[in-house]
Amino acid sequence: MVQNDTMISVSKVDKFYDDFQALTDVSLTVKQGERVVICGPSGSGKSTLIRCFNGLEFHNAGTIVIDGIEVEEGSKGLRRLRQEVGMVFQQFNLFPHLTILENLTIGPMKVQKISRAEAEKRARTYLERVHIPEQADKYPAQLSGGQQQRVAIARSLCMQTRIMLFDEPTSALDPEMINEVLDVMVELASTGITMVCVTHEMGFARKVADTMVFMEAGRIVETAPPEKFFTNPESERCKMFLSQILDH
Amino acid sequence: MVQNDTMISVSKVDKFYDDFQALTDVSLTVKQGERVVICGPSGSGKSTLIRCFNGLEFHNAGTIVIDGIEVEEGSKGLRRLRQEVGMVFQQFNLFPHLTILENLTIGPMKVQKISRAEAEKRARTYLERVHIPEQADKYPAQLSGGQQQRVAIARSLCMQTRIMLFDEPTSALDPEMINEVLDVMVELASTGITMVCVTHEMGFARKVADTMVFMEAGRIVETAPPEKFFTNPESERCKMFLSQILDH
Amino acid sequence: MAARAPNGAKKFRAFMNSVPVSVALYLLVIGMIIWSAYSGAQSMGYNWQWYRMPQYFYTLTDDGFQWGEIMIGLVKTIQLSVTAFFFATVLGLLVALLRLSGLVIGTAVAVAFLEFVRNMPILVLLYLFYYVLGPVFKLDRYTASVMCLAVFHAALISEIFRAGINAVPKGQWEGATSIGMSKGQAYRYIVLPQSVKFMLPPMTGEVVHLIKSSAIVSVIAVAELTTIGRNLISDTYMSFEIWFTIAAVYMVVTLALSIGVSRLEKKYAVQT
Amino acid sequence: AQSTQQSLSSDSVIESIKENGVIKIGLSIFRPWSMRNLDGDLVGFELDVGRELAKDMGVEVEFVPTSWDGIIPALVSGKFDVIISGMSITPQRNLTVAFSDPYAYSGMTILANKSMTEGFTLEDYNSPDVTFAARRGATPVAVIQSMFPQAELLMFDEDGASTQEVLNGNAHATMASEPTPSEEARRYSDTLYVPFNETFQAGGEAFAFRKGDPDAENYFNNWIGVKTRTGWLKERHDYWFRGDDWKDDVAE
Amino acid sequence: MRKLIKRLHWLDYVILAVIIGVASVIILRIGGALNYDWRWERIPNYMFRYKESEERWVANLLVQGLVATIRISIYASILALILGVILGIARCSANLTVRMLARTYLEFLRNVPPVVVIFIFFFFLSEQLIQALNMERWAREIARSDNNAVWTFLFGDMRRFPALISGIIVLALFESAFVGEIVRAGIQSVDKGQREAARSIGMSRWQEMRYIVLPQAMRKVMPPMANQFISLVKDSSLVSLISVPDLTFKTVELVASTRLIFEAWLTAAAFYFVICFGLSVLFRRLERR
Ligand SMILES: Nc1ncnc2c1ncn2[C@@H]1O[C@H](COP(=O)(O)OP(=O)(O)OP(=O)(O)O)[C@@H](O)[C@H]1O
Ligand SMILES: Nc1ncnc2c1ncn2[C@@H]1O[C@H](COP(=O)(O)OP(=O)(O)OP(=O)(O)O)[C@@H](O)[C@H]1O
Ligand SMILES: [Mg+2]
Ligand SMILES: [Mg+2]
């Protein structure tokens, strides 16, 4: 399934918040259809990195090229880029004033200017895919966390994105709901979409990741295929982190 | 370490929120020095139960007797009771406008009317116990989540309570910080204090629990010592829950 | 549910909190206040002439039914308030967007406008509009009043807008941008509709405030409710009757408004 | 009868004035009845009257400057003992407060906008197209309403605002007691003028006090009678209304 | 500077052009359109004046009024704060009667124009109060005595003390309704968990309020409260209607005496602006700390 076209190419990226350096000299390449899982301790810059991918934040040095478009503040390609890159947030960020169906159709209708009928058809397809077609007319507040997160995934898919970014999509969920979402993500992984996922769910990582990335203090410390990463990580820090995560 | 005096005795308790019955016919006995861990799916009434113990909520039928004092709305003993029963919340609930030291001394000084000097001495002892004596003069917002939760534990201890209630004390924490807090709780367990703890940290439960309680839909479904609970639970529901929790 | 025997204190508190007892107690206190006000007025030796009031609401003459001066004034007040509120909202939204726009001069202008208006008594602002800008732009007294009220309240409303927009969680912006919406689309479809919820209560307060501050235009003789009241007083010297009546008319209007909006709000809340 | 008499007189405001040793007089700033001079002190016709009255009663005097809007309620609710503030007698007012005999008869003149009222006769002013401006509740209001019932009347809080309306062309004319209109006409001679060399009168100005006080009525009437006969009132009236001697003391 | 210019958006230029346009129209036309002869030179005299009889500079009308406005604002703020906190707590009370009374008080004061409120309170209630306390005579006695310097400093001319007190009370009553709502919002904005934590270390309801809820609420209500006090300064101009000799009242007197309409009002406006703007800068500074 992994092809050889480069989808995301990050090279020598630095990112500052005022004086604080959140990313230092980060380089990373993701191929089309590749599934990358990023982990690392809190504050290590995981969120910052993937937020730079679709221009929610902008890097200060280096280059990021996504699907051939360079990510840069104020650049013309940015809105087109964002239509190619879906993002699923820890806090879901559904639009509470719209029904589930409207949440899914507003992007295609307003941004891609497709007709309502078509947008709704598309929306129902993806709701099917995340296993909640029956919730279409409810409001987000009426859904459980797990269901909300699945809607968020469907919302991104509705834009027919070729890349999906996940920022700890399960960490705001109750233990029982985590699995619902992970199952959907595993399914998604098998469709050949390019995925970059920040998560501490190591079971999931083992199952789907092509590449594991470990970050610490704004740097990528280790990049390895999962077999190697879990059994024999190179850095000490990574070992320690894994032992703590897998411990309890 | 387990003694035979009854510390908490709950019998046939019902609790309603308007029309919704959150607890149904709950009975439970906790002996002095006993360590009880309550688990169960979301919404099963775990929080409601332990909030009834120190009168943050009041039950509608049945009796709850803590350390010989009956818990009842408007009863005289309530404030005395609360000084005996410490509570640690999921969201820490530290007082953001007071320094750590003031957070710990305000209870003893204003409620128990002891002198400032003595209260500070006591506060420093307990800060030592939770391993953060150096944070005394900071404000809660300047501490990490794990540190904040340890301060919350120390705040309860400062009231020299003989019973501690924990409501999912680690579920708002980052993976790495969870261990800090669990370590402190394990230490605490060894001092002979009576503990009732709502948590899904099964590693912790295995280590310290004398009794495991499983709740579902407002009822206690199973009460068992941990050996039995983890290896051979009686109810189907409990088995399923455990498999999900321990899975990922 | 086995009822437990409540102790005395609890019983007493429950008794005091029961609705009939509370209402009775409430009526008692209010009654006492009214009675003491009444006896105070009595001891002043004031001759009440309430019987002269109805003619100011309506008259039935040979020509048929006619609205009285107070009703005419009320209509004027409402007309003035509605017009001013409309312009204040438009201007307020503009100022709020300028303030949040990140434009260098735009922000500076918004802040300067806000500070100037906020720190100026409305009376002075009215003089400015009527006596200074009036002759320059050939404004009549009604237009000047509307503009003065609109400008004054635009400043306050812009703050409500700003707070409402800021109250929408940052995640919503991110959600909108990450499905490729432009800034304008994010405002239009995601942020503004949600901020309505936060803005509705303070906006109601602001309408009430505007109706009240419209009373100020009596100093430039626009014939609204307060002006009518003051003129009637200067004609008849029934100061207290007229002031009380005017107060009651304002109360009826503003309370009806508050209650109406809170109904609306509830309906709105159920919907989402 | 004896006791009614006694209680009547002991309830009288005259009695409480004597008892407190001070008479409190309500007034509102109103050129040239009462004004602030360059020092910020009160001067004017009313001040002279008030002081003389207090001197004759053998008590101290305290002037209470009050906004015109609230002057009658303030009297009724007892904030002061008597209003001496150029208040003209009108039947409407008299329903609420009691009046003494008039102590002054001031004549009102029309001050009009030149270009707007060119060639107007007195009758022309009585038309729905004509707008008057006047101070709310002041004597000119009563005069305008009785002389020009057809005209529209705008009321302002003080005379300056009414004059400004005429100056800005928002009203055709205003009315005030001399000498103010002539002064204004001289100052803005391009715009303003006094079209008629005659004065219009209301019922005359009097002291106002709370109703149901025959003692006070008797006292004030007689005091005014005495002061009129000795010519003191006329002399003071002429000083403030005809003379220029005080003009340097009050900016204009 | 170049950096600044670079940051300008084309919209900035549009805004700038509009403003310059409007301003120049006003400036060009104001001389012609406004029929008024300006006499600014008169104004300084009404701020300060050299009194020959006492051989010193004394404050004249405008500054006297300014001082009175400041006095009234300070006292009324304090009183409004006290009343407002009580009202705010009453609005959150567990007792229905208390809540209803508080609500009535609030709705009455909030829904009636201040002018009307002020008249009603002044003529109906304050006279009773003044008579009941025999304040009038007491104040006059102080005014007549020789050593009244402290009183005069605090309250101005003691003869006008009753009017001043009524003005302060009326203003405080009126503003307390708004302060009360701010306090209530502040109290309710304190996280429920805070109250629970306080209760679970055994605090009484009162201690919970005093040590935990109010301090946090106060911090949250600082900005709206600051705005409310600025409003209070502005609203204080309304007490001129009940003859409290504040800045507005003195300005009206000055205008009525001298016809310096615009000069006097603009000066008064400048005074108000300086106080209010000064306060808002001060509050912002305090808040930042
Ligand atoms: N808007 C911001 N302003 C300033 N500093 C920020 C901002 N956002 C993040 N940071 C800092 O940048 C660093 C990296 O943050 P980031 O959110 O990327 O970490 P993370 O790896 O996602 O951590 P977590 O697991 O807690 O989500 C942190 O130290 C954080 O404090
Ligand atoms: N204040 C309240 N009013 C109405 N219903 C409530 C209230 N608090 C809790 N409930 C309901 O009572 C039930 C039990 O809630 P409780 O918080 O005790 O569950 P829990 O077991 O602690 O769940 P969780 O693991 O999510 O914390 C839930 O269905 C909840 O919706
Ligand atoms: Mg993150
Ligand atoms: Mg819970």
Q: What can you see in these coordinates?
A:
The complex is a heteropentamer, with 2 copies of chain A (248 residues), 1 copy of chain C (272 residues), 1 copy of chain D (252 residues) and 1 copy of chain E (289 residues). Helices cover 38% and strands 25% of the residues of chain A. The two termini of chain A are 34 Å apart. In chain A, helix 3 (100-111) packs across helix 4 and helix 5 (145-158) runs parallel beside helix 6 (175-189). A 6-stranded mixed β-sheet of chain A has the order 6-7-8-3-9-10, with helices on both faces. By secondary structure, chain A is an alpha/beta fold. By secondary structure, chain C is mostly helical. Chain C has 2 domains: 11-41; 69-271, MetI-like fold (Orthogonal Bundle), CATH 1.10.3720. In chain C, helix 3 (69-101) packs across helix 6 (141-167), helix 3 packs antiparallel against helix 9 and helix 4 (104-118) packs across helix 6 (141-167). Mean pLDDT of chain C is 84; it is low at 1-6. Chain C has helices spanning 8-17, 19-44, 69-101, 104-118, 122-137, 141-167, 170-178, 183-213, 225-236, 239-271; strands at residues 58-61, 64-67. In chain C, a hairpin with a 2-residue loop joins strand 1 and strand 2. Chain D is 37% helix and 21% strand. Chain D is built from 10 helices and 12 strands. Chain D has a 5-stranded mixed β-sheet with strand order 9-8-10-7-11, sandwiched between helices. In chain D, strands 4-1-5 form a 3-stranded parallel β-sheet. The termini of chain D are far apart. Helix content of chain E is 79%, strand content 3%. Chain E contains 13 helices and 2 strands; from the N terminus they run H-H-H-E-E-H-H-H-H-H-H-H-H-H-H. Chain E has helices at residues 2-7, 10-33, 43-47, 61-91, 96-111, 114-132, 135-144, 149-155, 161-189, 192-200, 205-235, 247-258, 261-288, and strands at 48-51, 56-59. A two-stranded antiparallel sheet of chain E has the order 1-2. The longest helix of chain E has 31 residues, at 61-91. The two termini of chain E are 30 Å apart. The model of chain E has no long low-confidence stretch (mean pLDDT 84). At the C-E interface, helix 2, helix 4, helix 5, helix 8 and helix 10 of C face helix 2, helix 5, helix 6, helix 11 and helix 13 of E. The complex binds adenosine-5'-triphosphate (2 copies) and magnesium ion (MG) (2 copies). The site of one magnesium ion has 4 residues of chain B, from helix 1.
